[in-house]
Amino acid sequence: MNLPRAEASVAAPDPQLTAPFGLGVASGAPRPDGVVLWTRLAPQPLAEDGSGGMPQSPVAVTWEVARDQNFVGVEKKGEALAQPDLAHSVHPRVDGLRPGTEYFYRFRVGDQISRVGRFRTLPAAGTSVSTFSFGFVSCQAWYHGHYTAHKHLAQEPDLDLVLFLGDYIYEYGITPENMWRQGADVGPAHSVEAVTLEQYRLRYSLFKTDQHLQDVHARAAAAVIWDDHEVQNNYTGKTPAVSTPDPNFRTRIAAAYRAFYENMPLDVEALPQGDTSDITTSIDVGNLIRFALLDSRQFRDPAPVDEVDRTSPQRTILGADQEAWVANQLRTSSATWNILANGVVLSPISPDKVDMWDGYPAAQTRMLEAMSKASNPVMLAGDIHKHVAAELKADYADPNSRTTGVELVCSSIASDGDGAVTDKHTADWTQHPYVKHYDGRRGYVHVTVTPKDMVSTFYSVDWVQSDDLAPKQVSARFYTRAGQMGLSPM
């Protein structure tokens, strides 16, 4: 796909274009010298054609970055063109900023000004970093409950980065049967499964109208990957999950990937080319952390047809090129901590969980071996709507095997409704001695990393369906010492 032509005639700001920032603001793809800023103009976010109520013409958007939230002494400013071909979203890359510094930003269209967002640039490459804190989340079925966990995450006093690990939206039609968020109502355009670009745009608009989600994006820079529901539940590669062939499925993927880009603070490298998009990237936090963000959906082999197929040594969940890339990221890293982020659980749990890495045991083994050779490896995952903390082992057949790393799995923000501490799946997970924690409630995970240790705190809320008033609770907190990988309860 080619970028829209910038020389198209630009619409003067419509004096009737009030409140164009209905989907909030965001920053992402952080570097030591800057970030990508994002907004999408949508004065009518739930316009059923997915346009956000915008005209079919480009609109100029100005942006400003300053060291203080009153914008006294603007350090950087510029203009971006919000074009209808990209749903009037803008993704300006701001550079030339100071490393390891807090900044504030805002957008303007005519006399309309957005809310103020905040981000912190990364420390300079190779520098010593005393501490870095991040949160990670997944699975935001808006219709299943309120985004209470986002409300609490946005209030974290220490938050340098937020990682979104997939299922940012859900493609399912929203019906009276699955509308568990009390007090909410949607029109008939939302009742059908999203398959077209306009429908995916509308679904993002619906989810992004949530104030608590907007607060999280305004609070800190984001790093984002997808899982399956950004397209279709359990799809693999270019293949739909359902058994009936769909000759238009690659067109659907292209629409879904385009809408993902339009609604996320991503660099231009992630702009889809048809049904292909590159969202893999690494983020270095001085010499403290190397993050590697993985795509565990786009390049995977189809679900296995039998046990012989499942255990085939050729099967891959990342694809050969991405496997080589992440192995190189681990091998060449000089960081104290090497943190990978992907959509699905790596730890071996059950052979019938074929949508996780358990469906790809040969690839699972290769990943575990690559991680075991890196300094202090950590895997982050989501997908399962449960909090899980697990130790990665050199040999899972030996209960006394050496611990080589840890895996932290966040529960959902709203998917599956209220949840409970224990549920019908608890025994499947806790039967394994290397699984150290399980909680079936909604929530998020906050992690603080220093050169000496990592503290991971799992926060949960007791309910999300009735309202957003549930207080957060510490579900579990673990201490991991650098050089001595494991999970020690605190």
From TrEMBL:
Entry-linked PANTHER family: ALKALINE PHOSPHATASE FAMILY PROTEIN (AFU_ORTHOLOGUE AFUA_5G03860), PHOSPHATASE, PUTATIVE (AFU_ORTHOLOGUE AFUA_6G08710)-RELATED
Official protein name in the record: Alkaline phosphatase
Domain PhoD-like phosphatase metallophosphatase: 134-456
Source organism per UniProt: Rothia koreensis
A Pfam family: PhoD_N
Highest taxon of the lineage: Bacteria
Domain Phospholipase D N-terminal positions: 23-121
